[in-house]
Design brief:
Helix 1 runs antiparallel to helix 3 (107-144), helix 1 runs parallel beside helix 4 and helix 3 packs antiparallel against helix 4 (149-182). This protein has helices at residues 2-25, 75-84, 107-144, 149-182, and strands at 41-44, 47-50, 55-61, 64-69, 91-93, 98-101. The protein is an alpha+beta fold and 184 residues long. The relative contact order is 0.18.
Length: 184
């Protein structure tokens, strides 16, 4: 019973970290990263399809992403999808390949992006704290069901250490992404 409570809390916390990592990947830094295109979907024969399923994504250098569609007739749809996205990058189409040249970020844009990163980090911490609260509530119910006070205290300490570990992990992810964004 008690191990189930700790295990469930840990699972929720791991999911929060996974979601945070996915969110941070889609945030543009000064460096080309295929993860930026995760959320872009293309109208592929009437169906919204993720970009990575219709084109080969490459990163030839630190400021360029190339997209080579599996079918040439979908080039125009990919270009439209990129223009509609919130990336702020204008695609260049040469007939067989689409190039995305990433301009350097302005200082103001870098600061805005760090705010977004911190917001995602705070959201992950809220999920972690909620998982801790749910675990504590379950432990209180177990105590009423006959769990000893010493066992209850031990499990609460274990839950708090787990929360601290995952909170520190969120801080590390946010700090790393901030560093990437502020790096020129």
């Amino acid at each position: 019973m008690a191990d189930d409570v700790i295990g469930a809390a840990e699972t929720k916390m791991k999911k929060a970290i996974g979601t945070l990592e996915k969110e941070l990947l889609s945030i543009r830094t000064g460096r080309a990263n295929p993860g930026m295109l995760e959320r872009v979907s293309v109208d592929y024969y009437g169906t919204a399809t993720p970009l990575k399923q219709v084109a080969l994504i490459g990163v030839p250098d630190a400021r360029t992403i190339t997209l080579q569609p599996y079918e040439r007739n979908i080039l125009g749809e990919i270009e439209k999808a990129l223009q509609r996205s919130d990336l702020g990058i204008t695609p260049t189409n040469d007939g067989t390949l689409i190039r995305l040249s990433l301009p350097p970020l302005t200082e103001e844009r870098r600061k805005d992006l760090t705010k977004v990163v911190r917001k995602h980090g705070e959201e992950a911490k809220v999920v972690i704290r909620n998982a801790r609260r749910d675990g504590q509530d379950a432990l209180k119910k177990a105590e009423k069901g006959g769990m000893s006070t010493d066992e209850m205290k031990r499990l609460q300490d274990q839950l708090q250490k787990l929360t601290d570990r995952f909170t520190l992990d969120v801080d590390k992810h946010v700090e790393k992404k901030d560093h990437e964004i502020l790096e020129k």
